[in-house]
Design brief:
The complex is a heterodimer of chains A (479) and B (347).
Chain A (H helix, E strand, L loop, with lengths): L2 H40 L4 H10 L6 E7 L6 H9 L6 E8 L5 H9 L1 E4 L12 E7 L5 E6 L4 H11 L4 E5 L3 E3 L3 H11 L4 E10 L4 E3 L2 E4 L6 H23 L10 E5 H6 L10 H15 L5 E12 L5 H21 L10 H16 L1 H18 L4 H29 L6 H13 L4 H15 L27
Parallel strand pairs in A: 1-2, 1-6, 2-5, 8-12
Antiparallel strand pairs in A: 3-4, 4-5, 6-11, 7-12, 8-11, 9-10
Chain B lengths: L1 H51 L14 H14 L5 H14 L1 H10 L2 H14 L5 H10 L5 H12 L3 H9 L5 H10 L2 H13 L5 H13 L6 H6 L6 H14 L17 H14 L5 H7 L5 H11 L5 H11 L3 H12 L7
Helix pairs in contact in B: 1-2, 2-3, 4-5, 5-7, 6-7, 7-9, 8-10, 9-11, 11-13, 13-14, 14-16, 15-16, 16-18, 17-18
Classes of the chains: A alpha/beta (479), B mainly alpha (347).
Amino acid sequence: MSGNGITLVIEIISWAIIGYMIAAGAIYLVLFLVASPKISKEKKLNRHEQIEEMSINKDTYPISILVPAYNEEAGVVSTVRSLLSLNYPQYEIIVVNDGSTDTTSEKVMSQFKMEPIELAIRTYFKTGEIKKAYRSTLHANLFLIEKENGGKADALNAGVNFSRYPYFAAIDGDSILEQDALLKTMKPIVDSSGMVTATGGTVRIANGCKINRGVIEKVALPKRPLEVMQIIEYFRAFLIGRLGFSRVNILLIISGAFGVFEKSRVIKVGGYKTDTVGEDMELIVRLHRSIKDEKSKQRIEYIQDPVCWTEAPSTIASLRAQRIRWQRGLAETLWTHRGMMLNPKYRGIGLFSMPYYVLIELLSAVFEVTGYFIIIGGLAFSFIETDIALVMLLVMVLYGSLLSALAVLLEEWTYHKYPTVKSILVLYAYALTETFWYRILMNFWRVQGLFYAFKKKSVWGDMERKGVFSDDEPEEGSL
Amino acid sequence: MIEIFIWVVFGLLGIQLLILALLMGWKAKNLALENKIEKEVAILKPQLRQYIEGKLSTEPALPAGKSRFKLIEIILDELSADNFQEEQKATINLLAEKHLADHYRRALKKGAWAERVNALYFIEDFGLFSLKEDVYRHFRTISKRDEEFRQCIRVCAALQEERLMDAAIESKDLSFGMIKELLYRLDEDLLKLTLERIQSKEDISENMLYAFIAFSGEHHIDMLFPFVEKKLRDDRKEVRLKAMSSLCLYKKMTDPAILSEFFDSKYWQERMYAAKLTGACRFEQYKPHLVYLLSDNVWWVRFAGAENLKVFKGGNNVLKQVAADHADAYARDIARHMLTREGGDLT
């Protein structure tokens, strides 16, 4: 191929990427427009009064909270504390220690004075061997299961086997819930008399916040740019994306950090899949599939209230590991359920959600990384017109920075959880920088994740916990 | 070409910066207002408390201005949560009628969705009977079955709106939980009237029947006990289960012999409730049946059997014996499990 031919091909690719990114940005805007009427309508709703009734209602379904934990010694005690102080009529907490090699179990056992109990567990799913179970002598509704290592999905399945209530919540060992989180998340289920089979709420980053004994006392921004950027990223994902999907019942993800599920439906679909790293999304897709196969009117909902706070990776290495894992999980799920893709039987899920996740969430990194090479090549080596390279850069700013900045404005318009004027300014300024460094990092890792998706191995990931929830923890029951 | 993109990007950036400036201004103003209200609450709440407790003879002077309504709403809402006597609660109600009722009336007529729903929450919390007609009129105008509809019928019930209960009895699509919420809010007179209408009506919805049975047990309403007990003989499995669940709360049966056939029911839920009823009513004669259920093929039935054996005097000893000697491994497991893990109340 001649030099002109190569240039022409690169120009065509460049325009395709530009067109792709404009289309992707437009889809985000459409999702925003779909979500905004509900956000606007409920913006001034008194959230406390809304759940007051449920907290005393005898018909509020009891719930089992599952906390899968693998090497969570830094945060597990705070997580359990936050769960013990939940405002909910009837619930049990089941910490599943998935063969941790650190002191996760010892911390739980000593803080909550656990004592061994005998096991007679229903086995809805086969899981790694359960070695022992304990129950707190201080809190009758707190249990700890010790099992051999089998991955997060296996730990959750073991928790479901052990649980006794008709609904369960899955929460990460590095997350804490707001006091009314369960009431808010269960409300769609109770209001719909069970027609809602799974719900999730907005997850926020806890880094930078002041946390005392498992309770967020003051919301504040972290110092590290990497952590601030993740806050913005979560705004974008939750406030713009998920609510739009949920409005039309085509939501494919409920965050692994916190979600509530109808146990019988999860049992029916076979529980969490243990051979994928994206078990949270995979389960939701399978639930949708089962609902559609049965022609059931049940649905999966997302509530917009921020209910869960999680510890975000604070180092490049742990963030990289997390993103590679997420991308692998996404790729594996989409591959497993490729039969749903563009299949009219699955309506919005098959015709919109699945293609969206493939083209936007999975492959956008490939498009963007290609774009980076074209921009650098165009500006530095002039193998395409400088104008095209500049247009691509501007579109990337539009798609990356300005959309994220919009998410910051949306958060301030709706929940304004950050209590100072300065914090909005800081978040907005960081959002504008996203295209120039953070997004580049993410895209390279996501492309790596795609390659890694071919190597299958169930792992927990190697996130280094700073323990943002850790505080001075005197033993419970002591003065 | 490039100019267009530059214009688009900088145009959008300009718009965002404008919105950002507005949001920052709005946030600063709101933070100032919140601080002001917080300070005023700290000053006024103790004064209002004294007035409500009768320690002050005249009502404290309330600040004028925009924050006045919000201020009173916050204080009265917080004070409502305190354990006051009836007389003091009546004073809170009078204050709410005086300072808040008109605002809520306007919100119901002209407010946005969230304002109307908030108004309905507080009308119920403060028991504003002067708005009974306004709320019912508002109920007639709601077409969408969302939070506004649900809260509106709760408020109608709390304000003892008879016309609402007529509509509820006729309705086929109110959920079980919602009907129970309504029944809970009725005073004795309206409850009696409603129950009479339900009993005399032949084609009431299943949800209404279930709610009625469950509510009877939860409130131990003696006059309804025979009705509930009779439902043990109903042809529909779900009705029988609801009746068994309700009787667990009554903790009694006039004819325990009826129970015997349920231990061998083909439905595991009935076997489970038979175990629960045995425990709830302390039917010593059925203790052997509980041991028999420890070998059931359904975990929940075994669990209920073990859980309810435990409530009898000497139950733990029976469980220990089962754990040691029973021929069935499942029975031994569940007995051991129950000896160390207390069961919750699942009725």
